[in-house]
Specification:
Elements lengths: L1 H31 L4 H29 L5 H31 L6 H74 L1 H21 L4 E3 H19 L3 E7 L7 E3 L4 H10 L7 E10 L2 E7 L17 H14 L6 E4 L5 E8 L5
Parallel strand pairs: 2-4
Antiparallel strand pairs: 1-3, 4-5, 5-7, 6-7
Length: 348
Amino acid sequence: MAGQKSGGRVQTLLHSVILPAAGSSLAVAYATGRWDLSAIATGLAIAGVLALSWQLDRTLIQPQLKRVTQDWLRLGLEITFSLLGHVIGALVALFTCSRIFDFVIEGATAWIVIGGIVVGFPIVHGTETALGYYHQLKEKEQLEEQLRALATQAELKALKAQINPHFLFNTLNTIAQLTHTDPALAEATIEQLAEMFRYALAGSERGLTPLEEELAFVDGYLAIEQARFGERLRVTREVAPEALSVPVPSLILQPLVENAVQHGQGDNGSIDLTIRVQRRGDNVVITIADRGPGMPSGYVVDASRGVGLRNVDERLHKTYGKEHSLEIAANGPQGTAVTVKIPAGERV
């Protein structure tokens, strides 16, 4: 740490004093034709003024410019004030030394050399300032992006946390009913529930999981519901094998199936579900369809009181963007079809 500070002080001294003094001395000697101590003294005076101007800029100007909210405007003002301070200070030092040492700068070439030195170092300083601002902006953007990602992850975990207790409550209600009608089946259902929650707890820590595992989790849920409804629950599966390895958000399908089981009973009490998975171009299209009474006219997911559909829709938005939403349509001649489109992406 001490070595880094020492190295920084040497670099600052080199940039702010040694190089400006050497460059200014050579420029003055060339412009005046006097290769003596007067040129060295004038060079040191110009370098001293440049260093003083740089220090005043850091302590007085930059703190005031921090009030400017627009980053690039603040950068432009900083470079402008720095350039003016350096040029005016250097010219004052040059004029004063010309009076003290009684020399005159004549000719366009001489003034070009002097001007190049006077303006050159402020330009170098301004460039370093601009690069510093650029790196600060990039670091700020990266930090903001990291914070947005962390916020999204936290929101997704909060949405999952709402789904899991909802699912657990309904499953325990099923088991409570079975304890009176079929205790052995109730015990088997509890074991099935334990297996499912091992997956659910692991899934809460994962962002994406292979579709094959997600469908297996749904099958476990339907096995529990089969214990409750018996032959009244009929499930048809149409799954494209090439879609099974596609990553999907964990715990994304079970709420849709649960919603279909709860609201998809036909007039005779039966529940006919279809789980359809297709690969269409760059997307995997997953549809959960039932033969129930259908959704009310003008149903909007965002305005729904139901936890399941609304949370799944929100998770899709946060994972893939607003263009990926639940699509709810009639399942003619009767029922509802809920469709999810998942970008195929890389396999997991």
